[in-house]
Amino acid sequence: MRWLGWLLLGLVATLPRGASADPKYTLRMGTVVPEGTAWAREMKAFSRDVAQATNDEVRLKWYLGGIAGDENQVFERVQRGSLEGTGSGGPGCRRVMPSLRVLEVPGLFQEAGEAKYVVNQLAADLAAEAQQSGFVYLGTSPLGAGIYFGRRPVTSMAELRATRIWIWDLETTFISLAREMGLNIVPAALERAGREFDAGHSDAFWALPTAALAFQWSTEAPYLVDLRGEYLFGCVLLTNRAFALISPDDQRQLRAATAQMANRLDEVSRQQEEALLHGAFQHQGVKIVPVSDSFRAEFFAAARVARDKMAPTLLPRELLQRARGLLSDYRAEHGSGR
Known about the structure:
With 338 residues, this protein is an alpha/beta fold. The chain contains 14 helices and 11 strands. The protein is globular.
């Protein structure tokens, strides 16, 4: 019966990888993305894609909704080895890849296509910065632009400057430039934003429309003013040491799955923002405050003055010059920009 044993052994050898129930590698990933959101659903779909593409050799275990801590705490856990990576909502990306801080400069980018183009052109620089910080940069995706949600409408720079505005305390470049514009900024942690507003310490949120929905800020601040400030891009980062353990083939599969998720997140974020700003928020009771040409011109003029004065002290001059050059190329091709 020895031939039967050899036959069975041969059959086992030809079975697809992943026949075992246990993966070779489980990558523990921390994120502040709330459970139940479209972003969380895409992250779970990403996990399924990775498991399928690697025949269950590699699995991702997500700790959603800040279970593993805020963005800074997630990185502390990564450094201690209790996590292998993160799906950052922006600040973690900028911490590892500081060139992304150019997205925090108000008034520099006029629309999402411009921000996406510049980030794509900086991809090699971002990968090198991540590598130097001990991470593999798997990909990034635009999440949207921060806009104003407040207790009261604002129709001029004077009214905007008289309003206490919450901004995520990890958006340090944007905070510095917004203050230089004369805005009254009340920075606080993401999880404290609602409490600060309820306690009367702030009167408005500067936030992504999708984040305002996810964290229910739009139900508390019923006035929306579509002035675009900073642009937020999420990213997926994995430590060099964890990535090195994975086979080259599975590394390629992981990168491919990340790219697919990034494309889906880009589309989902765009569709959600479009739906929220053109109907869904109004049904929720949010009032869209029109932005007059004069108010918009005031805002961009103040942003330009702050940028010219402060940005070189906050960002490398070469980065700003390169971003401006890329924007000029994009606007020349697409006929956009103010």
